[in-house]
What we know:
By secondary structure, this protein is of the alpha+beta class. The chain has one domain (about 5-300): 4-Layer Sandwich (Deoxyribonuclease I, Chain A), CATH 3.60.10.10. The chain is built from seven helices and 15 strands. A hairpin with a 5-residue loop joins strand 11 and strand 12. The longest helix is centred in the middle third of the chain and has 19 residues, at about 185-205. The two termini are about 25 Å apart. Residues about 1-15 and about 25-30 have low confidence and may be disordered.
Amino acid sequence: MMTGKLTSLVAAGAMLLLVPPAEAPAQQDAGTTPPQEITVMSYNIMVGMWHTRTSEYESMEENLQGIVEIIEESGADIVLFQEVDNGARRTDELDQARWLGEALGFHYHYAPAIEFQGGEYGVAMASRWPIVEAETVKLFNPDYATTHPEWGLDAGRYHEQRVVQVAKIDMDGMPVTLMNTHLGLTQHQRQIQIAQMAAIVEEALLLPDGAVILGGDINAEPDAIEIKPLRDRLRDAYLMIPDERGVPRNIPFRDRMTFRSDDPRTCIDYIFVSDRFEVLETEVLDVTASDHRPVVTRLRIVD
């Protein structure tokens, strides 16, 4: 289990939940040396329910299979999922993390945020390489019903419990810290939640190799000031990417938009990486299996 600053967060009231990572078929474990390049995806899948609102809906498994096909076509080695159900009535009581992990043939881990409809709702990750350690940290959760009674029923929606999933994978001998989150709907809570995550990032950067990948639905646009603590510690995968001439450039905002998938007008989904990775390419995929479009980044490991 991680110690230091993460332990301090727990003592300060951010609950830590330890859940053993699930196993995947052994044939997905690769060789004995780390790969030179990897591909990472962050994808808010809306619990596979986007097409339940359309005539295209056939079954929950069919919806999830569509998501699996997008992942496989992208070549992603690591996927950070947000809005994932486990045993909830609305999604046929499926363990969605397990379903997705097994369909991909990846190792997987689920991090519940709240209880919902007889099951749970949270985030999940799937990895081509073994997940050797995994933790769920509950993030700051304000009591807006008390502090903002004028919000009425919206107060409950705005103070939904949020978590950050923190895991270590063994990438053929190279330890990598993965962090996955889905942050709150107000700037006030995101500022505190990101400060909590920044402390975890700092601890992870001190580990041997200092390899960190953080992704998720941040619920903030690129110019939001609350994102700065992450950019101060990690590299935003949308920024300073070499073009065909090797000249660093930022991806134009019009090409970063992730929400809503059928008519995207804002960017709220991100991937951040430590200096152990060089960002070769980042793309928002033009697909509509969820209300969000997935972000995919291709990384080269820096020795």
